[in-house]
């Protein structure tokens, strides 16, 4: 009991050598000190000479991780409004899409098809392809990064989630095929709205190529819809 | 620079788009392809754990060189503690070299060459599809329009010239072929022939379709290249057709294959064979007319003894479309 560090030992200054061999625990203790905001341990590892800030100055966790809930809701709202309120959403984040991708995978899993890896792999490859294609079509100077394409693709998978759940409940039928068509067109419209909003923000004329930009998205979402249909 | 500024940390587009020049656009492209994405998935390390050096390295690699350290901090926004920002700046040199290797991909000569083939608009696509599906009623000429730019002799881009080859239509047609075939497989359990085994579609089948299609495309390009080489061997002048042109001409067959598969969905076997014959005929005519212009545009004088060989070769090209299209369309 004397040599064993207990939870009450945390918060002691690291210079106290009484507790032997606590090198590792010191590091942990600085992170788990809720009340001892004043301790500023100096670290001797090379390169990190500036001290870290105290716990009170740290931003909230979501802000640190880069998850902006308001922005996610705004973009999801743009998806639900068939793209008509897509004008403000120019930042691309991946946290919303990750949730939707896993939601889609979960919906498929309820139907007995475990397709998580497939969906993620297809998302990556198709967003690579789409960002390359948009870069080619629009010409020099206009480029949507792969990050943005991935984000657009992720948000537009929301209708596919509805399709997967509907096909799970109703089974293969005419209604399922009709809803598939509808959700593909819905996703395509939202995706092309997102893309044109971004291109317009870079002052690139897209009027002549609007349908050309929309058609590949149609193909992409057809593939995702097919996953629900077989 | 307030590290806790309330910017969206994944506002990569906004952060990189601050400088609006074309060069910056190129960098965005290179950064966007690899850098942004890995940055996005890696995520910033929480500020309370400075010993996670792997996390810092990931961010460093993904987010910019020395000159862009500030921007990098900005771009990842509110999420960085000052500790990580100094780490980013310290590793900036290495990161900048890394980014420059990536940058060359999107602003190099390959991209510029390819962008010529994608310089299309909707009007061109519609007219070209009409030309491909029914080349008999085309009243205009088949030659490409040349233009003299300083530095050489180029053809006009597809946007301004209907006869220029483009790569958008073949790529989209290839993709449509894959998607349509997958659709047919997925719905094939409705037909009486395969009722017992359920739907034939599986995601692996899509991959198989893609590889088969690419193989046929490559075969077609090889065929055209061989034809060009044979026709070229006795000519004093050098007929060099760029490889991407041949890829474009070879890819046009996918338009016909897609239409025949589409017709076959509704009209059954008879309709499929009619569409197959029509598609092959159209493709043959299109290729013959196109290549005749290419050959004649390069030779100064039409030499009689070679023209016979040329016409046989062109006829052979036209007839070779049939087995390729048939093999691609063998779905039902």
Automatic annotation (TrEMBL), chain A:
<dbReference type="GO" id="GO:0005802">
    <property type="term" value="C:trans-Golgi network"/>
</dbReference>
<feature type="transmembrane region" description="Helical">
    <location>
        <begin position="114"/>
        <end position="138"/>
    </location>
</feature>
<feature type="compositionally biased region" description="Polar residues">
    <location>
        <begin position="24"/>
        <end position="50"/>
    </location>
</feature>
<feature type="transmembrane region" description="Helical">
    <location>
        <begin position="144"/>
        <end position="167"/>
    </location>
</feature>
<feature type="compositionally biased region" description="Polar residues">
    <location>
        <begin position="1"/>
        <end position="10"/>
    </location>
</feature>
<feature type="region of interest" description="Disordered">
    <location>
        <begin position="1"/>
        <end position="50"/>
    </location>
</feature>
<keyword id="KW-0472">Membrane</keyword>
<comment type="similarity">
    <text>Belongs to the YIP1 family.</text>
</comment>
<dbReference type="InterPro" id="IPR045231">
    <property type="entry name" value="Yip1/4-like"/>
</dbReference>
<keyword id="KW-0812">Transmembrane</keyword>
<protein>
    <recommendedName>
        <fullName>Protein YIP</fullName>
    </recommendedName>
</protein>
<dbReference type="GO" id="GO:0016020">
    <property type="term" value="C:membrane"/>
</dbReference>
<feature type="transmembrane region" description="Helical">
    <location>
        <begin position="174"/>
        <end position="192"/>
    </location>
</feature>
<dbReference type="GO" id="GO:0048280">
    <property type="term" value="P:vesicle fusion with Golgi apparatus"/>
</dbReference>
<feature type="transmembrane region" description="Helical">
    <location>
        <begin position="212"/>
        <end position="229"/>
    </location>
</feature>
<keyword id="KW-1133">Transmembrane helix</keyword>
<dbReference type="GO" id="GO:0006888">
    <property type="term" value="P:endoplasmic reticulum to Golgi vesicle-mediated transport"/>
</dbReference>
TrEMBL record, chain B:
<feature type="transmembrane region" description="Helical">
    <location>
        <begin position="243"/>
        <end position="266"/>
    </location>
</feature>
<feature type="transmembrane region" description="Helical">
    <location>
        <begin position="272"/>
        <end position="291"/>
    </location>
</feature>
<dbReference type="GO" id="GO:0005789">
    <property type="term" value="C:endoplasmic reticulum membrane"/>
</dbReference>
<dbReference type="InterPro" id="IPR005578">
    <property type="entry name" value="Yif1_fam"/>
</dbReference>
<dbReference type="GO" id="GO:0006888">
    <property type="term" value="P:endoplasmic reticulum to Golgi vesicle-mediated transport"/>
</dbReference>
<keyword id="KW-0256">Endoplasmic reticulum</keyword>
<keyword id="KW-0813">Transport</keyword>
<protein>
    <submittedName>
        <fullName>Protein transport protein YIF1</fullName>
    </submittedName>
</protein>
<comment type="similarity">
    <text>Belongs to the YIF1 family.</text>
</comment>
<keyword id="KW-0472">Membrane</keyword>
<keyword id="KW-1133">Transmembrane helix</keyword>
<feature type="transmembrane region" description="Helical">
    <location>
        <begin position="312"/>
        <end position="329"/>
    </location>
</feature>
<dbReference type="GO" id="GO:0005793">
    <property type="term" value="C:endoplasmic reticulum-Golgi intermediate compartment"/>
</dbReference>
<dbReference type="GO" id="GO:0030134">
    <property type="term" value="C:COPII-coated ER to Golgi transport vesicle"/>
</dbReference>
<keyword id="KW-0653">Protein transport</keyword>
<dbReference type="Pfam" id="PF03878">
    <property type="entry name" value="YIF1"/>
</dbReference>
<feature type="transmembrane region" description="Helical">
    <location>
        <begin position="208"/>
        <end position="231"/>
    </location>
</feature>
<dbReference type="GO" id="GO:0015031">
    <property type="term" value="P:protein transport"/>
</dbReference>
<feature type="region of interest" description="Disordered">
    <location>
        <begin position="27"/>
        <end position="56"/>
    </location>
</feature>
<keyword id="KW-0333">Golgi apparatus</keyword>
<keyword id="KW-0812">Transmembrane</keyword>
<feature type="transmembrane region" description="Helical">
    <location>
        <begin position="167"/>
        <end position="188"/>
    </location>
</feature>
